[in-house]
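Regression report. Comparing outputs from two consecutive submissions.

Submission 1:
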Amino acid sequence: MAETQDRKFDVIQRPPKIYLDTNHLINIADVRKGKKLPPGQSEGCYRRLDDCIRSYCGLIFNPIATMDWVGGKASTQSISEIAAVVDSANLKYVALDADFFVYTREILDQCRKQNPSIHVPDLPPILQNVSDNSTILSPLHIIMNHVSEYLEKSLTEAIEEQGGLPNEIPVFTVVEWVNEIFKQRLQNPKNYQSRTDSFIKRFNYDIEHKDEYFRNPNHHRLEWFKKILKVDKILKAFNPKINVDNILEKIDIKGCPAIDLLWKFHEIRMKNGNLLRDENDVDDYMFIPIVPYADVMLIETKFKGTIVQADNSLKSKVFSKVSDALNALENQGFTW
């Protein structure tokens, strides 16, 4: 393995960015402890993957994924072991607020491309390198500080009374991050469940009214831009005289890879009548904004199947078998 990696370093242009779902992080943590893996899982493959993480790959951390880590029978020890795998990465990227920010950024970038005179907030990159930084830019704080109507008036006033929100926030270790989330879930279980229930209700409404959706999908997508992402409020705050609908109706969705994948994925579920039922279904959607911005992804078989069904070109980087992901990392690394 060492010789293979040394050879790759001669030709690699940049470290590949990889994303691992919860189960694969758990398996790496178990291998480190010397714990036996489930049947069909190769300890050798996970050791090689662990070596990639510690040496030359950039590992993507999606904070939303921690909601999956702290669910079920999670304990402080179990979540700390998963988080320690991410913290051990030689190079680490964070996708902060990915469930809204990635989609919002893609739309705003397309608005600027459509009309360079349109003003938009100065937002951070989708993947921020946090390996050597003490702070990170918060896209949510930046938007909230510039768009007075982004949140409910009472919440905005409460934030202003406390002196506002900083655009930069401290970088914590993933262990610190996830333990804080775990503590919050134990203290406020209803808030955590409310998040899940709200997501399920919103997406199941589409599935239950799929005939209405497919009669005019563009209308529903435009409403999603405004009601869920609140892009209209952002554009109006920076461009008071703008005709928002006229701009948004002309968005090139092919230039928004995460949004394009989200809608294709969701429309497959709608056509199949697959209602969201629990946290695991919700967690599936949390991966989607990361897919276009990762070089290699290791996720569960069922989810991989739907992703590739939505976009067959992604089969070259979305895997469910560790051996396939390793092949991409070790034998195709020169293409990054």
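Submission 2:
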Amino acid sequence: MTEPEPESDAPFPLGSVQAVASRAWELCLREDPIGLLAIPFLIQFPVYVFLTILGELIRHPEELPRETSLVGAVFGVLPLVVFARVFGESWTLWRSDAEAHGRRVSYSETVRHAFTKSWYLVVVMGTVYVLVQIGFIAFVIPGIVVGMVASFANQAAVLGPGRLLASLRQSRELLEHNIGHWFGMVAYWAVVFVGMGIIVTILRLTFEKIVGGPVGFVLDLVLFLPLQIALLVFTVCWTLLYREFEARRHQQLTAAAEHEGQRIVHVGSPPDQSARVG
């Protein structure tokens, strides 16, 4: 006899931001480190290399004229970088959601679903990026607002309606009904990334003092490895938060519908005959 499928909303809502974050770390570090950390890291490795090289060029602009061939090569692989970024994101979103609901999915199944949803995801990611950049040009604040409103658009593209406008609409609805918990999760990850950034910076400066110059490319990549791992856990965490907010929104709508039904029954019920006088 096969095991019954888990309920569609199990086990959400978990109840708190801390519970969501704890569940994300548990999935990544204990239950499926290969499927949620190792494989996504390998898929997105071209992205990490691209950003590392780009960072080196930005930190040492005086070397830019002598590295024109390198610059051309860097931007020549941009299509591969975009594909790695989108497919890696789609892989993590779908697999983490399946495992958070108690399913143990195969790698082939994850590949199939990730490829299927990648087209929706690239449209959403590209559109949101353009809108955020336009917003930042227009006095910064609009860009921040767009980023907040579309913060669950990636999850909606892969796990929800898929289409651009529907994904943006769902992201906005989830945010506006859970804004306090959203800020709580942002604060949690801000502390994590700031703390790790400080540690990485201290290590970088230490190595530069030891070698008497800028650190090499490989060492630079290794130094940023903890941050890359944290970003993968963050993606899993944000996916679980998306499901958490969906479950809470469903509870809110159910409670509102029950209250409205009780009000209609109360208003439409006949008056108590015993209360009449004469």
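Expected: both submissions complete independently.
Actual: both completed, but the second showed a warning that disappeared on reload.
Relevant detail on submission 2: Residues 1-9 have pLDDT under 50 and may be disordered.
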